[in-house]
Amino acid sequence: MINVPKGTKDVLPEDSYKWHYVEKAARETAALFNASEIRTPTFEATELFARGVGDTTDVVTKEMYTFIDKGNRSMTLKPEGTAGVARSFIENGLSGKAMPLKMYYITPVFRYERPQAGRLREHHQFGVEFYGSASYVTDAEVILLAKTLLNKVGVNALLLKINSIGCKECRPKYNEALKEYLRPHLGEMCPTCRERFEKNPLRIIDCKEEGCKKIVANAPSILDYLCDDCNEHFTSLQSLLSGAGVEYIVDPTIVRGLDYYTKTVFEFVSTAGGAQGTVCGGGRYDGLVSGIGGPQTPCVGFGMGLERLLGVMESLGIEIPAPAPVKVYFAPMGERAKAFAFSTANVLRAKGVSAETDHMSRSFKAQFKYADKIGAQYVVAVGDNELDSGEVAVRNMADGSSVSVQISALTDALVNL
């Protein structure tokens, strides 16, 4: 038997409505903030992610699905959504649009990592990208969009963590101070952090190894090294969030895992028992577009894993409304009745009424059992006798009652039930 690839998961018919619910909520929330959908390819040139995401990140060095195509070009299944949007922004001349340009996407992303709860090799993201504004107001709005969606689907026990990781003016000074602090501890660090020490020491703060976490616990805080512009930006953001009633904590250990971030970074963490974990993360990345060959364009956004969100909702016991059942099931017996049931079901569908009929040549008894399994609200049993008399019985499956209806008036009667 051929099995589903490791780290991937089927979404079965009985569960797909949960995805529809969350995706609908995401689209509706994006519309509230005047964001429009953008769709980018599932695979891109590998260089895009190496330059955009950063060649020192775990994503690029360890986790990408990369292949050589028939034209001998290196292609990669996208490991995140932001870089592809930046490429599209440049290639399609979107800098000429009215700014800010607010975009969102719902997309599969691919990362080769050890499968575990909440982490799959193929998962799906709802992402938001706001282009063109360098203002802290835009940072606050993106954060509020994420919070609005999480609250909309019932995830209210949240902790918002924010930080600033500076810019190209102030971060080098911090990197030097951080390296000076870390240098005596290099021998105690994991191999990955020793490698990061020269190339990107800020990433060491994000290490999940217990030994490294203990070492960086007393490291200098980047907040003490922010330039005046970054400090003012971060202070103003905090003031705006507080004024909007958004609770948060400042956490200097939040640096995010991708190299393109500058200034504001944030995470939403679920605080409910049994559902703890980051459900959304993002920040500002003002150098991404120019870094891959486009015009200097300030940007801010976030990514939210839908599998992770659905898992948190399940842990919290949040009930997702099930779809409405089939309204009418036709139980035909005989060839004439099958033709009648088929045509009448299609008339009802054209009028917006969900309808189903027998496809398996079952007995009446078996058809009623099937109708009950699929949750049909009403069953119309029809055979030669009913067609000859011009009258059928419509059974209410909830209480077992039946009413006789003239076939000539059947579709109107079923529409109005």
Entry keywords:
417 residues, alpha+beta, BirA Bifunctional Protein, domain 2, Rossmann fold, 8-stranded mixed beta sheet, 5-stranded mixed beta sheet, 15 helices, 16 strands, elongated
Write the layout of secondary structure elements.
Blueprint: H1 16-32, E1 36-37, E2 43-45, H2 46-52, H3 58-63, E3 65-68, E4 74-77, H4 82-91, E5 101-110, E6 122-131, H5 136-152, E7 158-164, H6 171-182, H7 191-199, H8 210-216, H9 228-243, E8 249-250, E9 262-270, E10 277-284, H10 288-291, E11 299-305, H11 306-315, E12 328-332, H12 335-350, E13 355-357, H13 364-373, E14 378-382, H14 384-389, E15 391-396, E16 402-406, H15 410-416
Parallel strand pairs: 1-5, 7-8, 12-13, 12-14
Antiparallel strand pairs: 2-4, 3-4, 5-6, 6-11, 7-9, 9-10, 10-11, 14-15, 15-16
Strand content: 15-25%
CATH class of the largest domain: Alpha Beta
CATH topology term of the largest domain = BirA Bifunctional Protein, domain 2
> How confident overall, as mean pLDDT?
93
CATH superfamily of the largest domain: Bira Bifunctional Protein, Domain 2
How many DSSP E strands?
16
Q: What composes the largest sheet?
A: 8 strands, mixed
Based on secondary structure, the structural category is: alpha+beta
Main sheet: which strands, in order across?
Answer: 1-5-6-11-10-9-7-8
Classify the helix fraction into a percent range: 25-40%
